[in-house]
Amino acid sequence: MRRLFVGALCALWGTLALPLWAAPEVEVSGLLDVYAGYNFNNPPASSGNQNVVRAFDLRSGSLELSLLQVNLKAKPQPVGFTVTLTAGKSADLVHYSPGEDRFKLFQQAYLTTTVGNWTVDVGKFVTALGAEVIESSGNDNYSRSLPFFYAIPFYHTGVRVSTGIGAGWGFQAMLVNGWDITEENNDKKSFHVAFTYSSDNLTFIQNVITGDETTAPPRGARTVWDTVLFYTFGADKVGLNLDVGEDKAAGAKWTGFALYYRRALPKD
């Protein structure tokens, strides 16, 4: 009798545990970004044939591997994940902070779950700021704008929550270690808030991030207000990205903007 009871209990446990440990459906995608460029100003070999005031197209007169990327993504059921593996010059550029090169294989690595109407992400993820992204295929211009490289961060590590608030509006907030660092470098955190709006023709995003990024005195917050606006009419799309920032510890202020125009070519 005792043996039957134990067997029935084991069978019940197996039935209950199976959905929790069922293998998730993983979506796999990738990107290979190779470019060749030539600068008619002929940057000298002493500078490594590098273009001045450029970021993702630094080299002149050579064929370069900009980015090799593999994405693994599983929907939250109840927990999902996103892993973005990267290699190439773009991965080096993005992980420019001291000590961050050891993490450059993982552009993103975070878990996702849902709580009611909220989506919660925990781990390392790319920033919400800016009108452009690290992957060239997601942008209207290959070489990226100066505000994308100089005015805002590339990625964060921490907690991110987001939700829709109706009528095309959305809200997002993050509590993160800071700018472009995987491991915390001080005892402070940075806080980010974003409001978004999207319709058939209009996309609007307002970001603000603030936090003390210093590792030694003098202390002070680094704050950036980031505005993104795109409008589509017919085959044409125009856009604006405006960044206004201040680093109190460094006594620095900056303002940058980028204008965008794209026209879709006819399919026929």
- Element string (H = helix, E = strand): HEEEHEEHEEEEEEE
- Into which percent range does the helicity of residues fall? 10-25%
Spatial separation of the terminal alpha carbons = 77 Å
| Spatial strand order of the main sheet | 1-2-3-4-5-6-7-8-9-10-11-12
Q: Summarize the biggest pleated sheet.
A: 12 strands, antiparallel
Structural class: mainly beta
Number of domains: 1
Shape-level CATH architecture:
Beta Barrel
Rg (C-alpha, Å)? 22 Å
Low-confidence stretches: 1-21
Calculate the mean pLDDT score and round it: 89
- Hey, roughly how much beta strand do the residues contain? over 45%
Number of distinct beta strands:
12
Describe the structure.
The protein is mainly beta. The chain has a single domain (about 25-265), classed as Beta Barrel (Porin). About 10% of the residues lie in helices and about 50% in strands. The protein contains 3 helices and 12 strands, in the order αβββαββαβββββββ. Strands 1-2-3-4-5-6-7-8-9-10-11-12 form a 12-stranded antiparallel beta sheet. Strand 8 (about 190-200) and strand 9 (about 200-210) form a beta hairpin.
Main attributes of the structure:
mainly beta, twelve-stranded antiparallel beta sheet, 268 residues
Summarize the structure.
With 268 residues, this protein is mainly β. The protein is built from three helices and twelve strands.
